[in-house]
Amino acid sequence: MDPKPQDHQSPSSTPSQLRQVLVLRPPPVFTVHEQDFSSKFHILKAYDSPLPTHDFLQTHAQSVKAVLCSGIGPITADVIRDLPALELVVTASTGVNHIDMAECRRRGIAVTNTGDVFSDDVADAAVGLLIDVMRRITSGDRFVRGGRWATSGEYTLGSKLACKRVGIVGLGNIGSRVATRLKAMGCLVSYTSRQEKHTTPFTFYPNILQLAFNSDALVICCALTNETRHIINNKVMMALGKKGIIVNIARGAIINEVELVKCLVEGEIGGAGLDVFENEPNVPKELFELDNVVLLPHRTAFTQESFYNAAQILIGNLEAFFTNKPLLTLVPNEF
């Protein structure tokens, strides 16, 4: 069932009921800009309630039409079933893998995201991670802070970025921006994606193994789906080779994390820059001591500017919904 425009107001409703927005767990964008949300909507804070989540949802089951969420507060089929009046899920992210899209489609619930508001910041960070691993910047910082410069003086050489063959896994909004940045820095860019992009100058490979075999580094930018889960496996890492580098700014489960750790520890690949992990916030402890691995806490999208812009999009979608206007960033539900 496809989402249909409906009248979200009724003559007997009060203003607070008209603009109720449920938040299971506060997205970081909401936390930073909570005042802006609270001035426009009546926020139902499940996370502040002494009631268990199920009981809280039951209390507001007949009145909640809109939910604001992010990856830290998944919208599961159980949550959706507890909210029979729900018509809109607004996520403070680009990805929607934390939302049961099939159940939303069945119920006719619309889903919006933040569009491409985070794309430039994530692309910048992806390139930053690649440079960091190749030039050993974080490793060098630890070298100096640990006092080894004064006592040893020997420091492992890094590698030049220009002329490296970099494969982009997923040439969408973010992947295209990463590719453009790397091309400007002298890299030889290729990609694999669901479909070949005939308008781009980059070399297309029809599968991930061919891309890895012809790359010095892979930058993962694709969405997490059933098809892409663990698409980066041992075979791909072996094809990339002992000097190969993997950067992941997409979703942790796109990589088989157990095999990645094994390959890194055993020296089967050259290094990794990781912003995302399979079981966040848990990170494999084996990675902590590796100088050829750079770790971030799923924060490549987090800048002051992107948070402000994202908040405006989230508020804009909620206001559009409550005033029966077209949603700004409706996610096509093909799940």
From TrEMBL:
<dbReference type="GO" id="GO:0030267">
    <property type="term" value="F:glyoxylate reductase (NADPH) activity"/>
</dbReference>
<dbReference type="InterPro" id="IPR006139">
    <property type="entry name" value="D-isomer_2_OHA_DH_cat_dom"/>
</dbReference>
<dbReference type="InterPro" id="IPR036291">
    <property type="entry name" value="NAD(P)-bd_dom_sf"/>
</dbReference>
<dbReference type="Pfam" id="PF00389">
    <property type="entry name" value="2-Hacid_dh"/>
</dbReference>
<dbReference type="GO" id="GO:0016618">
    <property type="term" value="F:hydroxypyruvate reductase [NAD(P)H] activity"/>
</dbReference>
<feature type="domain" description="D-isomer specific 2-hydroxyacid dehydrogenase catalytic">
    <location>
        <begin position="43"/>
        <end position="331"/>
    </location>
</feature>
<protein>
    <submittedName>
        <fullName>Oxidoreductase</fullName>
        <ecNumber>1.1.1.-</ecNumber>
    </submittedName>
</protein>
<keyword id="KW-0520">NAD</keyword>
<dbReference type="Pfam" id="PF02826">
    <property type="entry name" value="2-Hacid_dh_C"/>
</dbReference>
<dbReference type="GO" id="GO:0051287">
    <property type="term" value="F:NAD binding"/>
</dbReference>
<feature type="domain" description="D-isomer specific 2-hydroxyacid dehydrogenase NAD-binding">
    <location>
        <begin position="127"/>
        <end position="298"/>
    </location>
</feature>
<keyword id="KW-0521">NADP</keyword>
<keyword id="KW-0560">Oxidoreductase</keyword>
<dbReference type="InterPro" id="IPR050223">
    <property type="entry name" value="D-isomer_2-hydroxyacid_DH"/>
</dbReference>
<comment type="similarity">
    <text>Belongs to the D-isomer specific 2-hydroxyacid dehydrogenase family.</text>
</comment>
<dbReference type="InterPro" id="IPR006140">
    <property type="entry name" value="D-isomer_DH_NAD-bd"/>
</dbReference>
<dbReference type="GO" id="GO:0005829">
    <property type="term" value="C:cytosol"/>
</dbReference>
<dbReference type="InterPro" id="IPR029752">
    <property type="entry name" value="D-isomer_DH_CS1"/>
</dbReference>
